[in-house]
Amino acid sequence: MAHSHDNEGFPALLSDEVASDPYAFYRRLREERPLHYDGETNSYLVTRHATVSSSYRNPAFSTKNYEWQMEPVFGRTLLQMEGTEHSRKRALVSPWFRGRGLENWMPVIMRNVSTILDGLVERNVEELAGRFVSGTEVDLIAEFAHYLPVYVISDTLALPKSDTQMFWGWYQALIAFLSNLKKDPDVHQRGLDAHDEIRAYLAPIIAERRANPGNDLISALIVAEVDGERLDDEEIGTHATQILNAGSETTDKTLGSLFGHLLTNRENFEAVRDDRSLVTAAIGETLRVTPPSQMNGRILSEDVELEGETVPAGSWVNLVMASANRDERRFANSELFDLFRTDMDHSKAFTASGEHFAFGYGRHFCLGAMLAKSEMEISLNLMLDRFPDMRLADGFVPQAKGLKMRAPDQMRVVL
Ligand code: HEM
């Protein structure tokens, strides 16, 4: 594929135009140019469902990009491993994210949701004591979605709650590093600093757990063994760092988007409130229409045919989940949040079935999908129980921000 002109009539991926409405850009690409080369980022965008699906499963789409996108701040994660190294290391961690491991976490999730919600309600009650109003205004993102995943994860790793402020600082720096398509040097440096700080923080904790293993995920990683394979301190530090990050920002953003969808068209909120069998659909549909992580990068290890053209080995290809999930070739009224759609099996929305790609697909399918599902289901059910009259704050319109990671940054509601 020759590139005589950059972008050829399409806005640049990093332009303000795309930032303000990436879905309009992706819609145009799906229709007019399903394989698109973006000059500024020197990357290809793949935007149709069928092609994103086959690309995830094609071994020529390597995850080498994580060597520079992730390794400097996380260490060598599962995401950049391939083949048997990947399957062996993943097998050491995965029991914790499925079946028995997850059941063990359920009470932890319950406890966190209640603590946060109680705190949130109490704070509002105190603030508004003496006023006879049925609802108070809160920012669900700043006061709820932001806390829950990081609390759950610090509990699973058995790290003190008092350290969550530090975790936020670190994960924001790491996610910014990961999303740094513009290659801002300050963002880059903050990511590297965060890496050093996390490792310095974790080193004595890992040493202590080696001596006295407990019930937590760090201890489990220390004692885990599959086919004689064990993890060293460096790998445990990497897993802990990745889990802290992979599980925080994504779940945080999805929770924000979930309430945005339900409350923007309040009949959706009422439908789910009055029929809890729709809770799973609400979360699945949120992930489909507004996946928090909007694209996954890959590097081609050989020449690949895509949409009738040959893309050369070594190319950087972005699989745009945010677009594939809205492909009108796959879903009817594809851009509409529809609790009742029949062309997505919501019971499979959290499995590697390829209905939508919010959790990726194929070998690197999200390890935390079931945990994320539990966090969101429990949160939503509890909120619906306690605040059946919840609505968006007057005049507030949710605004999604970001390109690689995208979600509203505020969700002002009246409880
Ligand atoms: C709504 C919440 C979440 C979303 C949307 C999400 C999204 C993703 C995506 C798109 C990938 C694949 C990346 C790629 O192929 O390049 C992934 C991988 C991964 N996720 Fe999640 N994630 C979520 C929650 C979590 C949680 C809660 C955890 C852990 C506590 C987690 C841990 C991981 C890990 C370890 C991988 C790498 C798996 C591998 O390489 O084999 N995620 N996630």
TrEMBL record:
The UniProt record lists the keyword Heme: yes
UniProt name for this protein: Unannotated protein
UniProt GO molecular function: heme binding; iron ion binding; monooxygenase activity; oxidoreductase activity, acting on paired donors, with incorporation or reduction of molecular oxygen
Keyword annotations from UniProtKB, A to Z: Heme, Iron, Metal-binding, Monooxygenase, Oxidoreductase
InterPro entries: Cyt_P450 (IPR001128), Cyt_P450_B (IPR002397), Cyt_P450_CS (IPR017972), Cyt_P450_sf (IPR036396)
Similarity field: Belongs to the cytochrome P450 family.
PROSITE patterns in the record: CYTOCHROME_P450
